[in-house]
Amino acid sequence: MMAGKNLAGDLVKRARERRAKGASLDELFESAVEDFSNAAAESGQFNPVQLIQAAAHIQAMESEGERAAREKKQDDAFARMRKAQEDVLLQAHADGRIEAAVLRLPDFYGPGVGVKSLLGPAAQVAVEGGTADLVGPIDTPHEFVFVPDVGPVVARVLAAPGAWGRVWHLAGAGVTTQKALVEEMERQVGHPVRTRVSGKTMLRVVGLFNPVVRELVEMHYLHTDPVVMDDSALRQLIGPIAKMPYAEGVRRTLEAVRAARAGATREEHAPA
């Protein structure tokens, strides 16, 4: 039975045998997780690094044709879901049941957002220490919208008669990258921010245990393809749009993390 230092190698060996018999990549991952769990239960040792090492080799067994088909299926499924949601809303508008418009945003960041944004973990680690888990690659051209900037735009869209029944885009404050904004955090706090970047292979492995992470696999193309939006039509509708520069947005985000940490500390030391 598989165990000990050779567990990763044994998982890969079994995966190759199953691959030779025609097993799909998903079947290989599922079998590897089952074999790993059984071996861990028998030995009393649980070392997820061995599963991660094996998963990297299993991912490499995927052919170019399989990879292209899988990524297209994932991208199409997510895009279809989002489009279907918008279509329901706009159809209700067309039927006269509601007044509706769609405002699409890039990824967001800002005070109070916490770890719900791509940059949230890095902001917390910049203030509190530790290691930030980021979804990579982190050097893909990207835009981010500062959350407090969104409310005024929504209010102006609601007040614009020509807004209804259409899809609008709100761009960020310019093209940047996750890496550049983490470096800006480092500049402002005066020390390195430790990060751990997970690519698609790692997400696939973790996604076998965590359904939320599994959804990130389906949306991973948003990290490999540039996310750059054009809001010229929106500006024609409502006029100039104020956007927080990234450096100032990062400063305010870090301030909010510090304030939240200080508040939590005061509560811990408050008299009962």
Explained architecture:
Helix 1 (7-20) runs antiparallel to helix 2 (25-43) and helix 5 (120-128) crosses helix 12. This protein has helices spanning 7-20, 25-43, 48-59, 64-94, 120-128, 147-158, 178-189, 200-207, 211-218, 221-224, 232-238, 246-269; strands spanning 102-104, 107-109, 132-135, 144-146, 167-169, 195-198. The termini are far apart. The mean pLDDT is 82. By secondary structure, it is mainly α. The strands form three sheets. It has a two-stranded parallel ribbon with strand order 1-5. A two-stranded parallel ribbon has the order 2-4. A two-stranded parallel sheet has the order 3-6. The chain has two domains: 1-62, no CATH class; 101-269, Rossmann fold, CATH 3.40.50. The longest helix is centred in the first third of the chain and has 31 residues, at 64-94. The relative contact order is 0.13.
Question: Layout of SSEs?
Answer:
Elements: H1 7-20, H2 25-43, H3 48-59, H4 64-94, E1 102-104, E2 107-109, H5 120-128, E3 132-135, E4 144-146, H6 147-158, E5 167-169, H7 178-189, E6 195-198, H8 200-207, H9 211-218, H10 221-224, H11 232-238, H12 246-269
Parallel strand pairs: 1-5, 2-4, 3-6
Helix pairs in contact: 1-2, 1-3, 2-3, 5-7, 5-12, 7-12, 8-9
